[in-house]
Design brief:
The structure is a homodimer.
Chain A lengths: L4 E5 L7 H11 L3 E7 L18 E3 L10 E5 L3 H12 L6 E8 L11 H11 L4 E6 L12 H14 L5 E7 L9 E4 L5 E11 L5 E11 L7 H6 L2 E8 L8 H4 L7
Parallel strand pairs in A: 1-2, 1-5, 2-4, 5-6, 6-7, 8-11
Antiparallel strand pairs in A: 3-4, 7-11, 9-10
């Protein structure tokens, strides 16, 4: 039986330690091709490049542990997936994995996440897809403890498929050497970011801002990704790209719009 | 009674004719403050600026029909909303409207839409929000026929509120002078883009790509935004930022993940 073809991408860029580790894990399960941004693209959401040109080139980053074929791309994570599927891959992949992101994409972070936008782009194209994130923002985070959960979830996805229209958002807690408590299927916790803009003056006398903020949890449920992570579990949220709030259609049909 | 405070933004930039027209419409309903990108941001999805600086300045674009207060911002549409709420507005707005986009944000386009990301950002912050788009990509599109539907939907939103966690995605067909057939509450049509990359050679001999593609409808339902627009109706899709595919949780609980 031929091995599954796995497309690996991310939003932190092709040299990011999280991506390099994910490539190693995926090589245990299948044939890997990498198409990833040539520079960090965090916070890019589902941006695509429509008004400028895209560059891509074949690269070798890590001859020993890298994939046989790797491409860097000047575009966003969603661009990488589009380019991979249309131009670079030898055939339609069996799976697309994105990450391992340096930092959480749980709760409302999914909306801003380039990691998840790459996975969602693959999902829109009908390819089973998973985004992986470690809740540790540092560049030299230790990704080795994520191996077991990532291999387990990926193997189940390859075996069972993923329901159509669904993409998995997997977040892994930072356990400081302890094993994780287990893996939980969750819903996205309600939350937002309380922004604070740090206003500064440039050397030339021009005011500018840095966006900063604090995460504000609005949800006490014990079935959420945020709760699972706080208890040391890996969270798996089935995520969809049909954004329709079906429950609200009936309400809105009571509005007076056609008189 | 004091007039409602309405934040107006977009993704085509502060000088875009669609935004200028939306400002005029909103001035019929309330006090308007504009915070919009200083350059076009189409296809930016829900990108935010976290690794670079943001600039904003007070501007006057159209002394006669513009808003008394307008700010341009160097960031993405989502940045504009964050900056408006935290730094620029005198108080929390009663409504945020985004658009009028030059081109459709119906169906799967909502995922890539900077117009909708601005509205969704406001929704995450608990502010009623609506994105408006005209299905005409040209810069000199005729926005005057959109007035009646936009005022009707906005007035109903101000009167009734919008259900919590829901943001409206309104698309208006291009009717070439005919009146619209009416306004329909819809769900997002299933579709994707069949990408095609146009590969070219730069004067310096470097290969590059342009992303192009064709819309592919995967949905024959007559309750979708795509169907409503094709019949000359304005489509209103209640859109949510809880991306959880709740229906898939039970399926995934059958996976073998904790043995």
């Amino acid at each position: 039986m031929s091995k599954p073809l796995i497309l690996v991408t991310n939003d932190d860029g092709i040299t990011a330690p999280g991506l390099r580790m994910l490539i190693r894990f995926m090589r245990e399960l299948g044939d890997v091709v990498v198409v990833a941004p040539d520079s960090p693209q965090s916070g890019m959401g589902h941006a695509i490049t429509i008004d400028s040109t895209l560059y891509s080139k074949k690269v070798v980053i890590d001859p020993e542990h890298g994939a046989p074929e790797e491409y860097s791309c000047s575009g966003t994570p969603a661009d990488c997936v589009k380019l991979a599927l249309q131009e670079l891959l030898p055939r339609r992949p069996d799976l697309c994995v994105s990450g391992i992101n340096h930092g959480s994409n749980a709760s409302i972070n999914v909306i801003y996440s380039g990691t998840m936008s790459a996975a969602i782009e693959a999902g829109i194209e009908g390819i089973p897809a998973i985004g992986f994130s470690l809740c540790d923002y540092s560049w030299d985070a230790d990704f080795t403890p994520t191996r077991e959960a990532i291999l387990k979830i990926t193997a189940e996805a390859l075996n069972n498929g993923i329901p159509p229209g669904v993409v998995l958002n997997v977040n892994i807690p930072r356990t400081k050497g302890q094993p994780v408590q287990g893996i939980r299927i969750c819903r996205q916790a309600r939350a937002n970011w309380k922004e604070r803009f740090d206003k500064r003056m440039s050397p030339g006398g021009r005011e500018y801002y840095w966006l900063t903020g604090e995460f504000e949890l609005l949800d006490k449920g014990k079935d959420t990704d945020h709760w699972a992570l706080s208890q040391g579990y890996v969270s798996v949220v089935p995520t969809q790209f049909d954004l329709t709030a079906h429950h609200a259609i009936q309400d809105l049909n009571n509005w007076t719009l056609n008189e």
